[in-house]
Design goal:
Length: about 200
């Protein structure tokens, strides 16, 4: 079974240039009362996007020029606060395929990686430069190359940082733990059959 690699991700950007955006802001707690994660995408950044009467505040997620963007560009300490998995799930269901920021909360990165969403860091100046480029030209194409450790545009390249174990799992297509187990089921069965206490049992 081949797994999808996330070594190369290409798309347009959505700049949400704020620091310390926590998971409650990414998805308010009142929208977490669901049995599955389906449908969470519509609630991503809900309170930052909508007034109480449902009218739009003009958040980047709702601006026409950024519709169809799949790469979120943000500031420092993104995903801080609660470790709730609903936050990366909401972004994933919205259509976000990768996040570029100055820094991220550690648990948030892990949750994103398990969904195949790379969280890559640039220094402050590079994040701001990339965000400005996207704001001036929303059609600019961004490529995240985990093998070369670069964020690329036609105008500039930026050196990225990412935890090596996360980079490796995304680049090699082993970010999905369940899929990885399925891929290695024959190896697992061989090891299982060698265990003395499994004799007579069906794996």
């Amino acid at each position: 079974m081949s797994l999808p690699t996330r070594a190369l991700i290409t798309g347009r950007g959505i700049p949400v240039m704020e620091n310390d955006i926590d998971t409650d802001r990414i998805i308010p707690a009142r929208f977490m009362k669901t049995v599955t994660f389906e449908g969470l995408g519509q609630y991503a950044f809900y309170d930052a996007r909508f007034n109480e009467d449902g009218s739009k505040k003009g958040h980047p997620f709702d601006l026409p020029q950024f519709q169809g963007g799949t790469i979120l560009i943000t500031g420092r300490n993104f995903g801080c606060g609660s470790s709730r998995e609903h936050a990366p799930q909401a972004l994933h269901k919205y259509g976000i395929q990768a996040i570029i920021g100055e820094s991220f909360a550690e648990i948030f990165i892990g949750n994103c990686t398990s969904l195949g969403i790379p969280c890559v860091s640039l220094n402050k100046e590079d994040v701001e430069s990339l965000a400005q480029l996207v704001e001036e030209n929303p059609e600019v194409i961004i490529t995240i190359d985990l093998n070369e450790k670069l964020v690329k545009t036609a105008e500039q390249n930026f050196y990225l940082e990412i935890n090596e174990s996360f980079r490796k799992s995304l680049a090699e297509g082993i970010w999905d733990t369940t899929a990885e187990l399925l891929q290695n089921k024959e190896k697992i069965k061989t090891l299982y059959d060698k265990l003395p206490y499994t004799k007579g049992f069906v794996a």
